[in-house]
Automatic annotation (TrEMBL):
InterPro entries named among the record's database cross-references: Endo/exonu/phosph_ase_sf, Endo/exonuclease/phosphatase, TDP2-like
GO MF term set: endonuclease activity
Keyword Mitochondrion applies: no
Keyword Magnesium: yes
Residue span, Endonuclease/exonuclease/phosphatase domain: 91-335
PANTHER family to which the protein is assigned, alphabetical: TRAF AND TNF RECEPTOR-ASSOCIATED PROTEIN, TYROSYL-DNA PHOSPHODIESTERASE 2
Transmembrane segments: 31-52, 59-78
Name this protein carries in UniProt: Endonuclease/exonuclease/phosphatase family protein
Species in which this protein is naturally found: Echinicola arenosa
Cofactor dependence: Mn(2+); Mg(2+)
Amino acid sequence: MRYLVIPVFLLSVLLFFCVNISPEQLPYAGLVPMFIPVFLIINFILLILLIFAKKKILVLPLAAILIGWKFVGVTLQFNNDSSDEKGLSVLSYNAHMFNYEKYKANDPKVVPNIFNWIREQDVDIMGFQEFYQDYTTPARNAIKQISNEGKYNYSAQSVEEKSGKRFFGLAIFTKHPIINEGKIFDNRKTNGAMFIDITVNKDTIRVYNVHLESMSIPAEQLDNIDGIKENYRKTWRRLNRGMVNRAKQVNVLTEHIKNSPYPVILMGDFNDVPYSYTYFTVRSLLENTFETMGNGFGFTFNKVLFFLRIDNIFYSDQLNPIRFNTLREVDYSDHYPIEAVFQLSPMVKAVPESLDPAQ
């Protein structure tokens, strides 16, 4: 038995450590931690078997479980989110261009439906990834539709201009005054990161909206498992390339967050699972609302790989989350929206007389 237990223990510890290794430094290092859930399950099974067999070597799977317990917390949560207390509400949504492709395919009802749903949400802050703005068509003028006759202030970041009349990128809408805004990075294709500073009562909060490098797998391959199998070699290469790019992006992002003069809310599509360098690099600075207030597995991907949780809302420890939900009933996009509510209390520095927009 020990010839199985000892290798499993050593491999488990190696896997747990790999989330601290940047894919920039070691090729394919980012792919290895994907096996963490498998090895946690194996260690649980070994522990049970060894308990019944009364073998002293049970200390090894037990040690592996204790060392890797944080990965259980990022995977599955059972929190009490029954509070109906009002607070600062936040919604993050990869809107998949508001289903523009279906709109072009002569299904115009799709776009008004998603905008109708968004306008029904009485949320303080909304962050959109894959935001598509079309000034030429009133029904697809996302800024006008979502700002709802001035109900929301907004800031939008374009990562791809389309003839000056349309753009693709990121956007944040908020009921609160925006006193500062900026761009952190963009790759001039589909991804980027932005921030705004808002005043909430007498406090100031910095809100980030990010869309990190995608997994680089064509959409048609994600529609069925056969497509993934047939292209597995290309898929692995693309996954690794995406992880390397996300590692670069998250290093820039976390450096920016470290210099924030205010408490932070960070939302967006991270395109990476919780067992990743990306996730744990951010987690070293901020708390995650799913971990503190979530329930179940919190999967956010609306495709054949339904078991992925790649959308997140992180926050500074000065803030206090009281609710978190994944809105799986909302299926307009290939992602589900996520929402969190934070308790309002004095917490933040006063608004400075001047603020360097580059911070």
